[in-house]
Automatic annotation (TrEMBL):
InterPro entries in alphabetical order: MATE_fam, Poly_Biosynth_Transport
Protein localization: Cell membrane
Protein's membrane topology: Multi-pass membrane protein
Membrane spanning residue stretches: 5-26, 32-51, 71-92, 112-132, 144-164, 176-198, 218-240, 260-279, 291-312, 324-350, 362-381, 387-406, 418-439, 445-468
A single Gene Ontology CC term: plasma membrane
GO molecular function: antiporter activity; xenobiotic transmembrane transporter activity
Statement: the UniProt record of this protein carries the keyword Flavoprotein: no
Main location per the UniProt record: membrane
Keyword annotations from UniProtKB, A to Z: Cell membrane, Membrane, Transmembrane, Transmembrane helix
Lineage: Bacteria, Bacillati, Actinomycetota, Actinomycetes, Bifidobacteriales
Protein name: MatE
Length: 478
């Protein structure tokens, strides 16, 4: 488990580092308004990726890891459901392109959305490769694919520089599509050695109805997560003036989502591990694994959100331009909001390991109904800072109710040590906020060095206080 977690964290690190490099280039070589257009396209794609990615991937992972079903049968039926979902998004993007242009007050978006219609197709196949490997607990292969894809996605930069210098959005779309096609071909090749053995796995066949329910339930939940994390960017583009504010908010969101991407590694691991243990009747061990993963998430990922939140002004000025500091209060909120949503996902993966998705379904419905109106009202009356604050409140509520449900229905995954970690991080946030009022820098290398020193000092404190120990981390291998 520990090896798979580390590899998936590394793959997610590579994913958002490559994203940072792309955003760094776009933010530095385009106007704030043009960058806002790129941010709008990417945000819509992220929203659709959540639906076409996580539903099939998590459903495959859970059904295969349970050991009940024939793996090939699970794959074929999941692929059929995935094809239906992808077809819907293709139609929405291609046929609805003119509507998107009017909705976001930019007619140039028409062509871009028609081209974007092909990206969910490639993404839908790519995540099938990841889900199969997750379900077989071949985490090293899914992590390799997840690392390989963002590296070749960096081809977006030379594409924009040399092929689409006057149309960066086109360069982004062509680069993303090409990277996914290459990753799909590699993923298919990696499955060739095990394909024959999959045919002789469990004899029970999963029903198409159960497959569709599993895919759609996970998809519905992740679409809620995506909506909470992404709808604010679209609302800003639609209702906040001037247009440059969308670019500044995109810059803040770029860093704000850091911890959410990292926590996806925990969600990928916790579902098949806990589901497999529950299927074997070892509920106690499933609870122990969940507690350990939650402690590690708060211990090692939460401080990243805290540091970004406390130093948002320096980070935006150093990475982009001083003018981006207008979004510093928004970033302070978004850094915490993304972590809260990431933990919401982790808690719900623990719940869904039992194949009972009712709570997640209800949470998704309520969130989908309430979030967008809250964001629109916040943006109209308080601009980008108010909408970021609203996002933080919404994600904190979803995280809290999810934790309460896990505790009520299964186990208390928050140990005394986990609460101690939260207290230490609160102190770190206060100290860094006070220091930031006295000392500041717009040199990104110096800021990165300061981040590293603070992070390693913090980790040292965790080990010194024995909140985290080497023995405890070694125990995760079991």
């Amino acid at each position: 488990m520990s090896k798979g977690l580390i590899l998936n964290i590394v793959s997610n690190l590579v994913f958002f580092i490559s994203g940072y490099l792309i955003h760094y280039y776009l933010g530095g070589h385009t106007s704030a308004a043009a960058y806002g257009v790129v941010g709008t396209i990417i945000t819509v794609l992220d929203f659709e990726y959540m639906f076409t990615s996580n539903g099939a991937r998590q459903s495959l992972s859970r059904n295969i890891s349970s050991g009940r079903y024939n793996v090939v049968d699970v794959i074929v039926k999941t692929l059929a459901v995935q094809a239906c979902i992808v077809a819907v998004f293709f139609a929405i993007n291609f046929l609805g392109a003119p509507l998107f242009g009017r909705l976001f007050n930019d007619t140039s978006l028409d062509l871009y959305f028609k081209l974007a219609a092909f990206l969910p197709i490639s993404n839908g196949l790519y995540v099938m490769m990841l889900g199969i490997n997750d379900g077989l607990q071949r985490f090293q292969y899914s992590a390799f694919l997840s690392t390989f894809y963002p590296i070749i996605k960096l081809g977006v930069i030379p594409l924009i520089m040399f092929v689409f210098p006057h149309d960066p959005v086109m360069g982004v779309e062509v680069g993303y599509f090409s990277a996914m096609v290459i990753a799909i071909l590699l993923g298919a090749a990696l499955l060739v050695p095990v394909w024959c053995s999959l045919k002789v796995t469990g004899t029970e066949r999963v029903s198409f109805r159960e497959t569709a329910h599993g895919v759609l339930s996970f998809s519905f939940f992740f679409i809620m997560a995506s909506l909470v994390l992404s709808a604010d960017t679209l609302v800003v583009k639609s209702v906040v003036e001037p247009a440059s504010m969308a670019g500044y908010y995109t810059g803040a969101m770029n860093f704000g989502k850091t911890t959410y991407y990292l926590l996806q590694a925990f969600a990928v691991i916790i579902l098949p591990v806990v589901s497999g243990l529950i299927a074997k009747g070892d509920v106690r061990e499933a609870g122990r694994k969940a507690q350990t993963l939650v402690l590690v998430a708060f211990g090692f990922i939460f401080p990243m959100a805290v540091v970004i939140s406390a130093t948002s002004r320096d980070l935006l000025a150093a990475f982009y331009k001083p003018e981006f500091t207008i979004a510093a209060p928004a970033l302070s909120c978004l850094a915490l909001s993304s972590f809260f949503m990431g933990m919401t996902v982790v808690f719900n993966m623990v719940l869904n390991a039992e194949k009972d998705t009712r709570f997640s379904d209800v949470l998704s419905i309520v969130s989908l109904v309430l979030v967008v109106p809250i964001f629109v009202v916040s943006a109209r009356f308080g601009g980008i800072t108010a909408i970021a604050a609203a996002s933080t409140i919404c994600t904190f509520v979803t995280m809290t109710v999810s934790y309460v449900e896990v505790r009520r229905r299964m186990m208390d995954v928050m140990t005394v040590k986990t609460w101690a970690v939260i207290g230490i991080n609160a102190v770190v946030w206060v100290v860094l906020t006070l220091v930031g009022r006295v000392v500041s820098t717009d040199n990104f290398l110096l800021l990165a060095l300061a981040y590293a020193l603070v992070y390693f000092a913090y980790i040292g404190v965790l080990f010194l206080l024995r909140i985290v120990s080497v023995e405890q981390l070694k125990a995760m291998k079991g």
